[in-house]
Specification:
The protein is α/β, with parallel strands linked by helices and 260 residues long. The chain has seven helices and eleven strands. The protein has a nine-stranded mixed sheet with strand order 3-4-2-1-5-6-7-11-8, with helices on both faces. Strands 9-10 form a two-stranded antiparallel ribbon.
């Protein structure tokens, strides 16, 4: 039997990246597409608990997909528990824009969708493609100046390796980032602390009232062995992630602190 894949994303069900992933996976797996109806970037593992979720069956180039009027996490939950998809693997992406470092994996809807699946016992891979122009992240996800050809090959190759070799023990999600200009090769990495130098820009609206934009440039340097460093050097970054956020090193200091 062919492996079963639940394919989702955070750029929306019509995103060019989602369908590039579908084209890469369809020859090697049975793929069910369940994705947000609209752009949902940077929502992390946000979940809709105060409103109902609408799900529409749509056709994209003749392929049936399910458009969920909610978050990426909602799409995974709908796929697993409402549509009764029984996947061997959840694939999230291909995201338009890299998801690197502590800060990005905590806010990424792409990674969040894969983490949600892992929380229900289904391992996942999150795929993201670096963009040269950061403005491309905020454009129409149905189009991109970035080519997804090589990214599709990475999706196919990575999933073939998992299907044949098995998902690694002790890993809940594999976060794979693909450089805009791939020089070849994979690197197993750890998360860098930061990707952006966070800033806030203050502006005034036409009525003289202040409002704010969160912004900041990308950090160019990173320690060797990190995901940011691998991407900067043109290699595919493969980072194992776990749901367990416990900090073992804090147990002894806290024990001393809270002793009666």
């Amino acid at each position: 039997m062919r492996p079963r894949v639940l394919l989702t994303n955070d750029d929306g069900v019509n995103s060019i990246g989602l369908w590039a992933a579908y084209e890469a996976l369809a020859p090697i797996a049975d793929v069910t597409v369940v994705a947000p109806a609209t752009q949902q970037s940077a929502v992390g593992r946000s979940i809709s608990i105060f409103e109902p979720l609408r799900v529409d069956a749509i056709l994209h180039n003749g392929v049936e997909a399910h458009a969920v009027a909610g978050k990426p996490t909602d799409a995974v939950i709908i796929g697993l528990f409402a549509l009764q998809v029984k996947p061997d693997l959840i694939v999230s992406g291909i995201n338009i824009g890299e998801n690197l470092s502590f800060e990005s994996v905590m806010t990424s809807g792409t990674v969040g969708a894969a983490l949600e699946g892992a929380n229900h016992g289904v391992p996942g891979i999150a795929f993201s493609l670096q963009v040269v122009d950061q403005g491309d992240k905020f454009g129409d996800p149905r189009r991109s100046v970035q080519s997804f050809t090589e990214a599709g090959r990475v999706v196919s190759d990575s999933c073939k390796r998992i299907f044949s070799g098995g998902y690694p023990d002790g890993v809940d999600v594999i976060n794979i980032n693909i450089p805009a200009r791939w020089t070849g090769g994979y690197e197993i990495t750890r998360l860098a602390p930061k990707l952006f130098a966070t800033g806030v820009e203050r502006r005034l609206d036409p009525r003289g009232r202040p409002y704010f934009w969160i912004d900041g440039p990308i950090i160019d340097s990173a320690d060797p062995g990190t995901d940011v460093s691998a991407i900067r050097e043109g290699r595919v970054s493969v980072t194992p992630l776990t749901l367990d956020l416990t900090a073992p090193g804090g147990a002894d200091p806290l024990t001393a602190l809270f002793q009666s």
